[in-house]
Amino acid sequence: MGKKTYARHNFHSHTFCIWKEVPFSAISELKVNYTSQSGSQYIFTAAGLYRISNHWGRVANCHWRLVPLAEFKNQYTTVAYANWTDFYSNDDTAKLFFIKVDWLTREVNFYHKQTADSNEKVIFRNAKEIAKTIRTIKEVLSQEDWAKYLKYDDLESLREKVIAELVGTSKTFLEVKKAYL
Question: What is the pLDDT of residue 69?
Answer without folding.
Answer: 84
